[in-house]
């Protein structure tokens, strides 16, 4: 299992949910209006591609075999709509309680 942390402009919440549903990624946590900073040439600033002004985030638990298809679909979505502010980060899940 992997943990996938996805950040995106909150206006695209339904698109991200539909993608997770199509990829059969059912369990996740959602944070609305997440705060953060992006950077341009190393200088931090708010409202960048990585952290748009109204950024949301989802943390999903994903089977290993579904991670690459999910990342490919997110990458395609990001290329289609760069204002999405989409980023995805993946961690191994080593233990659960």
Protein model, in words:
By secondary structure, the protein is of the alpha+beta class. The chain has one domain: Alpha-Beta Plaits (2-Layer Sandwich), CATH 3.30.70. A 4-stranded antiparallel sheet has the order 2-5-1-6. A two-stranded antiparallel sheet has the order 3-4. The mean pLDDT is 80. InterPro entries: N-reg_PII-like_a/b, N-reg_PII/ATP_PRibTrfase_C.
Per DSSP E runs of 2 or more residues, the count of β-strands stands at 6
The major beta sheet can be summarized as: 4 strands, antiparallel
Succession of helices and strands:
EHEEEEHE
Give Rg in angstroms. 13 Å
Tally of distinct domains: 1
**In what order do the strands lie side by side in the largest sheet?**
2-5-1-6
- The total count of helices amounts to 2
Shape: globular
Residue windows where pLDDT falls under 50 for at least 5 positions: none
CATH topology: Alpha-Beta Plaits
Secondary structure class reads alpha+beta
Query: Proportion of β residues?
Result: 35-45%
Highest CATH level, the class: Alpha Beta
Helices, strands, pairings?
Layout: E1 2-9, H1 13-22, E2 28-34, E3 38-40, E4 43-45, E5 55-62, H2 64-80, E6 87-92
Features:
N-reg_PII/ATP_PRibTrfase_C, 2 helices, 4-stranded antiparallel beta sheet, Alpha-Beta Plaits, N-reg_PII-like_a/b, two-stranded antiparallel sheet, 97 residues, 28% helix, alpha+beta
Short synopsis of the structure:
With 97 residues, the chain is of the alpha+beta class. The chain is built from 2 helices and 6 strands. InterPro entries: N-reg_PII-like_a/b, N-reg_PII/ATP_PRibTrfase_C.
């Amino acid at each position: 299992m992997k943990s996938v942390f996805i950040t995106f402009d909150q206006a695209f919440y339904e698109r991200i949910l539909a993608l997770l549903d199509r990829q059969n990624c059912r369990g996740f946590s959602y944070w609305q209006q997440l705060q953060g900073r992006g950077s341009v040439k190393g200088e931090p600033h708010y409202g960048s591609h990585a952290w748009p002004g109204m950024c949301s985030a989802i943390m999903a638990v994903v089977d290993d075999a579904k991670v690459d298809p999910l990342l490919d679909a997110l990458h395609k979505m990001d290329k289609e709509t760069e204002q999405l502010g989409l980023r995805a980060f993946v961690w191994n899940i080593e233990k659960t309680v």
